[in-house]
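EI: anyone free to look at a 208-residue chain?
SC: sure, send it
EI:
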Amino acid sequence: MRASDIVRCSEFPCTDILKNLFVVPGAEVDPSSIKMMLICEAPPPDPKDYFYAEGDAFYLKTLLQAFQDAGADVAGMAAVLRAGAYVTTAVKCGKTGYAISTDTTRNCSAVLEKEIDLFPEVEVYLLMGDVAIKAVNYISKRRTGKAVIPPGSTYKIRQGEFFFRGKPALPSYTPTGHNYLIEKSKRRMIAEDIRRALEISGSPRARA
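SC: here you go
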C-alpha cells in the first residue's frame, strides 16, 4: 500500500501553504507492519529534502540522526520502515512562513486522520512538535470531544501518560531542520522519546 495513492486533499482551503508542495509518503508499506507513527510538522521547502526523497535529503538526514541518537541501527528510510516506524507530517503542504496557522492545522488534521486510519496496528504515536500535537488534538476532539495532549510546554508534559485511540501518544519536538542539530537539550529529549516509542512498539531495532 502507498498512502499517497489514497490520501488526498481536493479543496486546498488553507492560505498559508504552497499546494504545489503537497506530499504524502509514497513508499510501499505493509500497514500491518507499522507499529509506531512519527508525526512531524510540514514538508520541507525543497521536495528533495523530504523524508522519503532519494540522495542526501536533509529531513531524512536529521531524522536518521535522531534514531541513531536513540540507539536504533538505521541507515536509511527503508531501515526505519523495517523497524516498524512510519514517518509523516501533520500538514501536507509546504508552508509559506515560519509558523503554521491554527486554521491550516485544523483543516489538514482531516487529511492526517485519513492517513492514520490506514495503520490500525500502530502501538504508539510520537507527536514531533506543536503542530503535530495540535493536529492530533483536533482529530481527538472531533471523535471524543476531548484533547489528547493538555496545554503546556513540551518539556514539562512529555513524561506524562497520554493516549490516542487507546495507544500511548508521546509529545516531543521536531527532529527536522538546522535547530535540531544545534539545540543539544532538545536533541537529547528527542532521542529519549524515540527510544521510549521503540520500546513500546516492540521494535527489534531498539537498543539500550
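EI: The chain is about 35% helix and 15% strand.
SC: 👍
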